[in-house]
């Protein structure tokens, strides 16, 4: 086969940009899979035209901040499948697919035979979970180093000493009975949630709670309203369940559907009223009432994600939306991921009385739940007051860190940049001018060793996305906040 002559120098340089724009260093996808996907789709869809010379592996690796071997491996794979052609000393060129050799034709058949379903592909394509889950300023992760391990161990020993065989078998209910009771008392007392223990279902995380909600309360094709910007985790689960996602903008009072959007009621509405994720606003009392009235009038379900309301530094949180609901339209979701530690994987859903039994049965049917021993330990941790003590202690720690971060931001930028998020939760949002590409800033910061997540990734409608950085302070000690932020500021200044 004739070697295809190189296009212009300009085109060759455009390729790293093409890849850079799409390559997400924080994506959950492995580097080699991500790079392969970007190049392969670019070639298949003609965005990387036949004859285009790929940059040398060293150059691309450097531009992306990944290992050269990764790029070598991806080029080899693409060559094997016929997407590119390589010749010793000649470089690597995009194949003319119309004149593909046989091996490429085979690959074309394989393309049509994509192993993942369309739903699966969409899930991976829109994946939001970061691979880095520790280090300054990873958002959404608490200070796990201060978890009271000794207390936990001693409770664990006690629970194991009295372990019943049933606790080591498959679980058959909606979670450990003592834990359901303890959670019911906790959410009544601290969040004004109106419930009994029978309405509490223990899950292995908010993600699982959301999966149950989507599976049991909606059918594929039903519409879900999601806050824009909003929690990518809810988006991913709802998308995977085949729901139609409708991003709904926010105003000063919270979720703000336009009159036109209100005309067609959704099946589900996902909201975070206590501390909007990620921008941190509190939903007004008036908006809460409007939302509940609308849900009652149209038979919609309100999914209330109350993920970090324990941490408010100053004002007290408004009680949960669920407590205002007279029509049983709210599914209230809480988690121990932020108050204790995420890998515990214990969360809870408080359901309207009529739904609890169905949720519990489905949980068993789909997942054959277990983890009963851990839940029993957690029940004691709550009942004996350790949970309340830990939260009180952590509130003071996070409050000091929050202040230290604000101080570090002000020291670097004065009032040039706004901080959103209220004095609550485990992160703030540093607002950037719209012209700044926040994903580029995050990438540069990561190279310098500091983690942040771009605000734009929390939007479904990217062109309308605001620019900003989520800065978490759960994973960074108070004394490390200023030096870490200085590193962040250096990366950021290059883009301002
Ligand atoms: C908005 C929001 N809700 C809920 C959660 C908790 O999810 P899980 O309980 O699955 O850990 C998170 C964690 O990142 C979150 O950011």
From TrEMBL:
SUPFAM superfamilies found in the cross-reference section: PLP-dependent transferases, Winged helix' DNA-binding domain
Pfam entry (one): Aminotran_1_2
One Gene Ontology MF term: transaminase activity
CDD domains hit by this protein: AAT_like, WHTH_GntR
Domain HTH gntR-type intervals: 29-97
PANTHER family the UniProt entry points to: HTH-TYPE TRANSCRIPTIONAL REGULATORY PROTEIN GABR
UniProt protein name: PLP-dependent aminotransferase family protein
Native source organism of the sequence: Variovorax defluvii
């Amino acid at each position: 086969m004739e070697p295809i002559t190189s296009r212009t120098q300009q085109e060759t340089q455009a390729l790293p940009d093409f890849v850079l724009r799409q390559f997400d260093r924080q994506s959950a996808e492995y580097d080699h899979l991500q790079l392969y996907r970007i190049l392969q789709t670019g070639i298949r869809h003609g965005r990387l035209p036949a004859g285009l010379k790929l940059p040398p592996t060293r150059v691309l690796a450097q531009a992306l901040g990944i290992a050269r071997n990764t790029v070598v491996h991806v080029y080899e794979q693409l060559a094997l499948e016929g997407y590119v052609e390589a010749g010793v000393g000649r470089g690597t060129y995009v194949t003319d697919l119309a004149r593909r050799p046989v091996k490429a034709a085979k690959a074309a058949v394989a393309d049509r035979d994509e192993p993942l379903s369309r739903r699966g592909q969409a899930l991976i394509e829109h994946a939001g979970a970061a691979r880095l889950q520790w280090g300054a300023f990873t958002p959404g992760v608490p200070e796990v180093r201060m978890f009271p391990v000794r207390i936990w161990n001693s409770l664990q020993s006690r629970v194991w000493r009295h372990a019943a065989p049933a606790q080591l078998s498959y679980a058959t209910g909606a979670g450990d009975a003592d834990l359901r009771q303890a959670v019911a008392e906790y959410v009544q007392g601290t969040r004004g949630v109106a419930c009994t223990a029978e309405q509490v279902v223990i899950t292995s995380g908010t993600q699982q709670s959301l999966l149950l909600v989507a599976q049991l309360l909606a059918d594929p094709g039903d519409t879900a309203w999601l806050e824009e910007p909003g929690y990518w985790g809810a988006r991913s689960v709802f998308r995977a369940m085949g729901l139609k996602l409708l991003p709904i903008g926010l105003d000063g009072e919270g979720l703000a559907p336009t009159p036109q959007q209100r005309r067609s009621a959704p099946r589900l509405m996902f909201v975070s009223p206590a501390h909007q994720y990620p921008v941190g606003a509190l939903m007004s009392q008036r908006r809460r009432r409007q939302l509940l009235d609308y849900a009652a009038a149209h038979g919609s379900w309100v999914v209330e994600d109350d993920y970090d309301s324990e941490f408010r530094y100053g004002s007290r949180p408004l009680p949960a939306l669920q407590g205002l609901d007279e029509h049983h339209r709210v599914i209230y979701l809480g988690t121990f991921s932020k108050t204790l530690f995420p890998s515990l994987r214990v969360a809870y859903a408080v359901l309207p009385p009529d739904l609890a039994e169905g949720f519990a049965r489905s949980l068993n049917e789909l997942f054959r739940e277990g983890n009963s021993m851990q839940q029993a330990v957690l029940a004691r941790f709550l009942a004996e007051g350790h949970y309340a003590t830990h939260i009180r202690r952590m509130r003071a720690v996070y409050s000091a860190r929050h202040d230290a971060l604000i101080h570090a931001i002000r020291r670097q930028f004065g009032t040039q940049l706004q901080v959103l998020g209220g004095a609550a939760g485990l992160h703030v949002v540093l607002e950037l001018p719209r012209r700044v590409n926040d994903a580029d800033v995050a990438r540069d910061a990561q190279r310098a060793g500091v983690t942040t997540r771009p605000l734009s990734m929390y939007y479904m409608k990217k062109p309308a996305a605001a620019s900003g950085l989520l800065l978490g302070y759960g994973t960074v000690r108070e004394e490390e906040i200023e030096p870490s932020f200085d590193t962040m500021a250096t990366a950021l200044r290059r883009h301002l």
